[in-house]
Amino acid sequence: MTERRAALIFNPAAGHAGDAVESLPERLRRDFALTVYETSEDRSAAACAEAARLEGVPLVIAAGGDGTISSVASALLGTDTYLGILPLGTANSIALTLGIPDDLEGAIEVLVRGEPTRIDAARANGRTMILLSAIGLHADTVGETPQDAKQRWGVLAYITTGLKKLMSLEPFQVDIETEDQRIHCRAVAVTVANMAPARTVLAQGPSALSPEDGRLDLTVVSATTLVEAVATGLHLLRTALDGEPAERDNIGFLAARRFRISTDPPQHVLIDGEEVGTTPLVVECLPRALTVMAARREVVPAPPPSAEVEAKLEGLPELEVEPKA
Fold first, then answer.
1. Segment 194-242, tens digit of pLDDT
2. How far is the CA of 244 from the CAs of 14, 104, 145, 236, 241, in angstroms?
3. Residues spanned by CATH 2.60.200.40 within the chain?
4. What topology does CATH give the domain 127-287+299-323?
5. Residue 271 scores a pLDDT above 80
6. What fold does the segment set 4-113 form as a domain?
7. Among candidate residues 234, 219, 237, 273, the one with its CA nearest the CA of residue 92
8. Within 13 A of 138's CA, how many CA atoms are on the CB side?
């Protein structure tokens, strides 16, 4: 096999440390002519990826969590350079959604034998977004979970924080603006997703989330008690696994190419797992802007732009919808 050029962008602060991570360059050199870039306080993952791209490397491999992967992707948008992924973070939701295994050997196999796949990305408050942006409960849970707990317990670390947040739910006013309408309601969580695994339940309002349809999917969740919040989460998980849209009155969803979201009071914002300040949030889809090495799969055609888009808003508290002039 002809040796292929690749660059490895490595985040030493990623969630999975140890001998396996230290041997990454050695493993990858079996299949690639490899250049290694290690991120630091002075050199971001995006800067490393830009340097590799300018060197003409056709495959740039991001080794880290969702934040590192998103940062590397930001330097590759709109180019012919492929993004490779080695999931070493806490949630690894981008990899999971693309069918990339969370074990290193399996992920390397995708780099070697996977297929280039063109997917949508998005711009969220000026930052690249591959996965999702979250406001409210999801953002608070991730943001308030200590880093040492994430490294020790992985995704389970979020459960304790999430339960504490559920014990003191504080709904907020939400104003959502799309290309053609304005929406007002009350919520405890708002999520704008390009893609997300089923376990990210607060993003799972519609029947499916596709990173290849040229749209973003927004899910609004409202709850006032712990019991209601838990029941809502279980409903979202079940419908996501079944490929069905959510049906509860306290869940709303719609799709659009662009969203502007403001809240009262201001809420924390999370973009691809990174805290980025507070609302307002502006997210715009970048159709087919990124090529990733993904697991081979059966080709499922994306719906044409004229296809009917799922939407459900009825039942949300204090709901007001008006068309834009």
1. 999 998 889 999 999 999 999 999 999 998 887 888 888 889 989 999 9
2. 34, 32, 31, 9, 8
3. 127-287+299-323
4. Tumour Suppressor Smad4 (2.60.200)
5. yes
6. Rossmann fold (3.40.50)
7. 273
8. 29
* pLDDT reported for residue 158: 44
Which residue spans of the chain are classified as CATH 3.40.50.10330?
Answer: 4-113
Tokens of 55: 């060197």
Which of 43-52, 92-101, 153-162 comes out lowest in average pLDDT? Answer: 153-162
Distance (Å, whole) CA 159 – CA 157: 6
280, pLDDT greater than 70: yes
Other Cβ atoms closer than 10 A to 36: 17
Task: Centre a 10 Å sphere on the Cβ of residue 230 and count the other Cβ atoms it contains.
Answer: 13
Please, what is the average pLDDT of the chain? 86
Q: How many CB atoms lie within 10 A of CB 47?
A: 17
One-letter amino acid for residue 28 of the chain: L
pTM passes above 0.90: no
Handedness of CA 240, 157, 84, 33 (dihedral sign): negative
